[in-house]
Design goal:
By secondary structure, this protein is of the alpha/beta class. The protein has helices at about 10-25, 45-50, 65-75, 90-95, 95-115, 150-170, 190-205, 225-235, 255-265, 290-300, 305-320; strands at about 5, 25-30, 55-60, 80, 120-130, 175-180, 180, 210, 220, 220-225, 240-245, 250, 270-275. The protein has 2 domains: about 5-180 and about 220-245, Rossmann fold, CATH 3.40.50.720; about 185-220 and about 250-290 and about 305-320, UDP-galactose 4-epimerase, domain 1 (Alpha-Beta Complex), CATH 3.90.25.10. It binds NADP nicotinamide-adenine-dinucleotide phosphate and guanosine-5'-diphosphate-alpha-D-mannose.
Length: about 325
């Protein structure tokens, strides 16, 4: 039975990746942080399901290098997926050093722990389209980085650390440069879920207004459930490499609002209020990925359309609020 270790297992992607690896017969180990309220809601169904006995959670933190060494020595994973991060771009302006430590240095802590304990394990780093920042679209593997936030800067560090361990130590280390991906499991302070939760609340008569920031930003939004398949495929590839994963289609925040509200029979313009509080010190205006390398070499194409993604998220939030 192959053994995988996932950091950030309690997050959106960690939960979808756990689903996938358990379905493929893996023994899955996940690292969770100590929090005052347990943040394992996304894993509850899996843990109580038939494959739940193959999922083990361990306390750990990317800020605790010796703990990582101890865990890797104990688990001896075949594959390591580093999904843990302070992943919110706007919050990274409030917590720049913390974000640099977890999202940037955390990568090298994990890589170094792996080099010392299980150097033949395959390693996936959750790199991000935020590294491209203000580079003109479409962005691909050869596009120079120009990050626009402490988060983006930290991800560039993690990207190059991953390349460096591949080149320096001949380790099987890879970067998935993923464009935005969402789902009903998305945290509520990212714009898509913030919108779909508000649509559900407004449709249920529990809210009237939704305050948002920049409506003109364009993002290449895909479905998280599709994207985790690529993480796994990258580690099954014959050589370690870096891949852009995207849909090749970009939409504005305004378009997301239009579709989400219309799906619930609402007019977005009657409810959305622009609030400068949500503007960022430096914005990423336009992300649009060119994933032709992944399509060519990994045989991958996203299954879910933008419209399906938006309506799936609205439906899930409406079902939740309406019981
Ligand atoms: P997410 O929902 O915010 O999950 C982040 C995970 O990291 C959570 O499990 C969190 O634990 C954990 N974590 C945070 N700080 C940690 C620390 N110091 N030590 C150990 N674990 C820690 O993010 P996501 O959307 O699933 O994204 C997964 C990864 O892909 C992240 O690295 C993100 O930056 C990257 N990424 C995401 C996207 C996207 O559009 N979703 C695109 C490109 C790249 P708690 O539950 O305790 O907070
Ligand atoms: N969060 C948020 N809240 N964003 C808003 C709001 C709001 O009220 N109003 C407008 N926006 C705009 C942001 O300014 C940004 O341009 C866009 O909506 C998307 O914001 P987020 O959903 O917060 O995502 P992100 O693109 O900054 O970052 C996500 O994608 C990255 C990949 O490109 C995160 O998942 C990162 O972890 C990921 O790396």
């Amino acid at each position: 039975m192959p053994v995988a270790l996932i950091t950030g297992v309690s997050g959106q992607d960690g939960s979808y990746l756990s689903d996938l690896l358990l379905a493929k017969g893996y023994e899955v180990h996940g690292i969770v942080r100590r929090t005052s309220l347990l943040s394992r809601a996304r894993l509850e169904n899996l843990r109580s399901g038939p494959a739940g006995e193959r999922l083990t959670l361990h306390y750990g933190d990317l800020d605790e290098p010796l703990g990582l060494v101890r865990l890797l020595e104990q688990i001896q994973p075949d594959e390591v997926y580093n999904l843990a991060a302070q992943s919110h771009v706007q919050i990274s302006f409030e917590l720049p050093e913390f974000t640099g430590s977890v999202t940037g240095l955390g990568v090298i802590r994990l890589l170094e722990a792996l080099r010392l304990t299980k150097p033949d394990a395959k390693f996936y780093q959750a790199s991000s389209s935020e590294m491209f920042g203000s580079a003109p679209p479409p962005q691909h593997e050869g596009t120079p980085f120009h990050p626009r936030s402490p988060y983006g800067v930290a991800k560039v560090y993690g990207f190059w650390a991953t390349v460096n361990y591949r080149e320096g130590y001949d380790m099987f280390t890879t970067n998935g440069i993923l464009f935005n991906h969402e789902s009903p499991r998305r945290a509520e302070n990212f714009v898509t879920r913030k919108i779909t939760k508000a649509v559900a609340a407004i449709a249920a008569g529990k809210q009237t207004e939704l305050r948002l920031g920049n409506l003109d930003a364009k993002r290449d939004w895909g479905f998280a459930g599709d994207y985790v398949e690529l993480m796994w495929k990258m580690l099954q590839h014959h050589t370690p490499d870096d891949f852009v994963i995207a849909t090749g289609e970009a939409h504005t925040v305004r378009e997301f609002c239009e579709i989400a509200f219309a799906h619930a029979g609402l007019d977005w313009e009657k409810h959305v209020v622009v609030d400068p509080k949500f503007f960022r010190p430096a914005e990423v205006d336009y992300l649009l990925g060119d994933a032709s390398k992944a399509e060519r070499e990994l045989g991958w194409k996203p299954a879910t359309t933008f419209h399906q993604l938006v309506t799936m998220m609205v439906d899930a939030d409406r079902a939740e609020i309406e019981g």
